[in-house]
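Bug: token stream looks shifted between consecutive jobs. Job 1:
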Amino acid sequence: MIPLGDASRRPLRFPIITTLLIGTNALVFMLELAGGSAFIDRWSLVPADIMAGRNWITILSAMFMHAGWALSSLPTRVTAFAPFCSSVGSRV
């Protein structure tokens, strides 16, 4: 059974960090769908490039990349963790 909330703890303030992470994931996913292969080639992490000292930003950008719509874990994560966003975000 999927929990719909956490009644034992109420948030003290709005979960900004959690909301920003979810928003960033959604934005990058939409950019990935719109940009196609060119976007993926530009922002994916390639270990050989990192070892050569190029494209260091891909260490961060690759964390937000998805494997396409069918394999994307974004809807699953949002559905599974949304009830707990306020509890986690208020403690950060």
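Job 2, same session, no restart:
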Amino acid sequence: MKHRTEQTLVLERKMVTHHDVLTWDLDRCVGCQLGPKSCPKEAIQHTGGSVVDGRLETKLLVDVDTEKCIFCGMCVVMCPVNAISMTLNEAAYIPVQAFEAFPYLVESTEFDAEGFDWDRKDFIIDNCPTDVISYDEAAHTLVVDDEHCIRCRQCEVASDGAFEVVQPWEGTVVLRREQCIEGCVACADICPTRALHIDENSGELVLADYYCIKCGACVQVCPVEPVMEEYDVTLQSQGVTQVKTLVRVANIDELPIWVERWRVKHTPVQSGAWVEALAKLADEKASQVEIERKRAVKRRDLIVALKGGRELQEREAQSKEAQLRALKGGGAFVQE
């Protein structure tokens, strides 16, 4: 049974002892690549979505084929924006994890208040795209709603490293503006973080790669369509070898925006279902390394990409200048 409202898509399977419910929060859903790619039965697809005059008018809507869906929960595990939940008899339950066919992704967001500049408190809260960071006045600390945090790492940069975020996916995102359709910024409209955004001063499309969560929603809405091709891949798990025919993009270099996923951090698991899901989701770039965190929190382009980032830099520059001038001979080190 399937029913949809403007805010939710709900699938139900009622049996004598089981009542399974899959729920999509359509406000959170961005129409990413991970749900459809991870589904073992190809039951998930995106419909609709329109770009008018270079702006996203309506985002992609998720739809599920009730005849194909087996309520395995793989999409719940892989959803990068925590838009999908699943219950069994009204209790949270994900079958593929319960039966150890799928791992738990390794991800976290931690805050260290020691040495933190509390003048940045509101700046951090304002730059959380999912509004999951709040100030606990009684404990004098910043608190994260971990269940809904999407690990975008904007708080890392906004806090000058007081937050430390572990993203499950490692990879990269590439923006080729010369390939874009003139005036199109649909990818920035759908991006759930500030990874793709419109610069407040120039009005140009800007990539702040460190904030990318590798969801691929930008690729999904881009009006320059990918060319797909089939290819065979040999999968091995627990002594069993299988040859599977999968689908990949054949014209990556022609696309304005492209997201690559190299590897994912997860708990140990031995499962053919997980091996096949990874083959669909990840690119073969295991030797590559993600942007270093220590370097990222000091990158000027990442700070400027945040809301109010330019103003923050100007205030901090003025404060540092005043501190230098207060020292004997410090004025000589101030750049005029």
